[in-house]
Each structure stands twice: as structure tokens, then as C-alpha cells.
Amino acid sequence: MKVAVAGCCHGALDKMYETLELLQRRHNVRPDLLLCCGDFQAVRNEADLRCMAVPAKYRHMQTFYRYYSGEKKAPVLTVFIGGNHEASNHLQELPYGGWVAPNIYYLGYAGVVRFRGVRIGGISGIFKSHDYRKGHFECPPYNQQTIRSAYHVRNIEVFKLKQLKRPMDIFMSHDWPRSIYHYGNKKQLLKMKSFFRQEVESNTLGSPAASELLQHLKPTYWFSAHLHVKFAAFMQHETNSKEELPKATKFLALDKCLPHRDFLQIIDVEHDPNAGDSLEYDAEWIAILKATNNLVNVTQNTWNMPEKNGLHAKWDYSVTEEAIKEVLEELNHDLKIPCNFTPTAACYDPSKPQKTMEPVHTINPQTTEFCAQFGLTDINDRIQQAKEEGSGRAECEEEEEEEMDSTGSAEEPSEYNTDNSGLSSFNPDEIMLDEEGGDEDLSTCSVDPSPDHPPEFSTSFSDIRIMPDSMAVSSDDAMDSNNEELEKSGGSKQVEEKSSTERSLKRIGGDENGNSGVKKIKRRNQAIYAAEDEDK
Description:
By secondary structure, the protein is α/β, with parallel strands linked by helices. It has one domain (2-396). The chain has 15 helices and 15 strands. The strands form two sheets. An eight-stranded mixed β-sheet has the order 13-6-7-8-9-11-10-14. It is globular, with a radius of gyration of 23 Å. The two termini are 46 Å apart.
């Protein structure tokens, strides 16, 4: 089947679907599925705009609300992940995924689905080490910190995805896996984006969490966006045993959605001709959600996922074939995701603007139904409960002037650097949020520049590239030698890296409610996890 892949959509749905229709008219090519790699911007109204972490000048309604209201319908099934410029209050309603509009499906914080037998996974948000070990505690109305931390990747989502054993066909992340640039034309990438040089040379560009998943999942295709540059790479994975067949991943980063840009890619993916045309649950993923349900944490407390270190009775949450079979039996072997989209907020009306509309924390009936069906924790319901309990405790402490007990908590001060994620990364698009006057993220480019485009978007078809049978990097695009000295380009922007210092890190084990024990250990792989957090 034909799959269209888009980079950062930025709410320009009309433009994206118009391009697909143009593809069909001119080349008789009709994609069966559209994937979007984040910054989708499912903005329904003015309140949603307030929940999008961008400077005020970039807060535009765009066209998603027309699909939310039913005025328009997506002409092709669309599956997307979240990025770092989203209406976080809207996406937060669907932590396990769900329909944001008819025929438009969000994968959730992390998720795996199937379409025509093709297995598609993804993780939303971007990596920031200082939030990586926290729970999903944010809820609207957001403050200046939580409006950003709401879209930061959490370790629990990575942990869940690492329990997967069955092969993955396609995986999406918003930010790039760290080190992927070493498997493509690195020299040309730096020519187009010279301010990446220092991070590329120090191997700190991209997400270490995504890199970890890439090495574990070994998908056939991996798609990303975020950096607004088109880049292809081919990664051959190491085998763990002689019996294991060699695997390789074709990586592609997409440019953002703009007229006369190559923001869409069409690829041919092998599928099951006997499978239906409906989006389906993935039985293994559902079984993993059930197995890891007691690990849900909705507090700001930082904690580590279970591992084989003597502190946890259980550390392997991968599921058995029997557990997968139980999921199938629960669903009567009908994995079709119900088309149960329900509007949960008022839709923008251009004739009646409501600039003072405030966001509210909403429990989405899709999530309620999903959690009830599979016996899962409704994260938003748990957040509301935690807020109510926290408020009650605060009042009680104020009246009785009680001190906290000494049993220890995950917020207990530590002499150690608790940032064991090990990684931090400067990202120009993320820094843009603090630079109201900058327009740098409006400039986009491609590692494989296309010819000059005609001036009119409606008559231009250069927004689409048909992917050849192989995405493998050609000999001209082969990766640079590790010892090769890259060309120095004048005027490149450099970002000062903070020096890494090795420190002993505190290990805090957590229970099912996110509360911690008092046992502390030092991190074994200290050399890997000792990098200081730039974002303090």
C-alpha cells in the first residue's frame, strides 16, 4: 500500500490534503494512509491556542477546527504523533490515543496500531532530561513551566515501548534519534544547517530516548520531523546472535508543511491484502498497557523504571503469548478501533471570536471507554483526584501545622545529580520559544534540494516526492568517516555546551502510585548518565 508521510503540519490541514488530491489528479497516485510526525496543532478554539507553547505571533487558528466541527472530513486516514508545538490540553485528553476528528487519529503519549497488517508505532513530544523521569502531572490551565513540560517525553512511555518483542514496520518520533546523522550524508546536513555542527560533532543532537528505542525496536522505517530539514539515513543494526537475521532501518526526516516545499513523501509498504481497511488495536501493545498499568505516575516526583538491579521484584514487563491471546479473546478477535469521536470543546467560530476563552481540564469519553474496556488507569481522572487530595492535604497542614513525616518521598532533596537520563540537547526550534524576535524557524531547507518551484502553490506539484524502492543512502551520500574533518562554514551559529561532570546518582524505586522508597544506590553506567542538564 502507499503511505504518505508528512513532517511538521503546523495546523495546515487544508494545504496537506490539497496536496494529496493534487497527487491523485496529476499522477493517479492515491495514498492509503497519511502519517504526520508531530506539531500537528489540533487547535479547536481560542483556549487551545493559549495551551500551545509558541510566541504569540505564531498563534494562528489554521484549519484543523473545520475538521473538528465536521465542516470538512479528512480524505485519507491520518495518524499522527504530538510534537513540541501542540494544543497540549486537547491531546492530553487522549493519553492512550484516540480520534481528534473523524478519520484523524492521535497515537497518544506512545502507541502502536495496525493498518492493513502494517504495524505502526510512535512516541509523542521531545526529550528534555529534567522532565524525563517525572510523571504526567500537568493539566490545564498551564503555567509558564507546565505549558512546555506537558510535551516532554517521559521514561514510562519509553519503558512500555521497550517491552515490545514483535517486529515493527513503521515508527515515528518528533525529534530525531541521537546519532542517526552518522548514518547519512552528515556533511551535506551541516552545509544546510551549519548551527548543528557543534552538537553533531559532540554527538548530542537529537533524543537519546529515541535512539534507545531505535536500537531496541529496529523498525523497517523510522520517520521524524522537528528540525525542519529533509534528511535520509540507512542504519544497519547489529545482530544479537548468529541465528538472528540482520535488520536495517530506513530513516527519513521530513521538512515542515509549506507551499513549494518537499514536505510529503510517498512510500510503498508491504501489507496484508486480506486485512480490512480499518485502523486496529495492536494486541501486544494492549497487553503491555495492562501489564504496566501499576507503574502510572501522575506526580512531579522523579523516579526510575524497574530494572534488574536488586531493588525491584519485577523488571521485565514484556508479555507472553498467553497474555496477547487473552486480549484477543476480550475483543472477540475484533481489533477494530471504534469510530467513537465525540467533540469535547466548543469549536472556533470566525464570526464570533472568543479571545478570553480559558482552557479547562477535560475527561474525554474515548479515554474513559478505553480504560474501562481494558482495565486501565484514566490518567486525567487520576490527576484530578491527586489535585483534590493535594488541596485537602494542604488545607489540613495549614490548619494543624503538621510537618511531613520522615518516611521519605521521591521529592526528597538529594546531594546527587538526579538527572540520570543522561542527555540534554539544544534544539533551535525549542529555544525559539524564548526568542520572541527571532524568525529563524521560518527558514526551511532540504538536504536534497528540489528544483526551483513555480510561484503558484495550486499549480505546483513539487510538494511531493515519490519514494523509490530503496531509501538506502547512495555512494555519494555515504556517511562521513568518523575521522574526517568537516568543512568549516563561516557565520555558523555555535551553542556553548556545558561540560559534563561525573557524579554519583541517587536511585529511587517507586511503587504503583509513584511513591518512592528510601533505598539509594549509585548508577552503574555512570559514564553514560552523568551529563549535566542544560535546562536547569
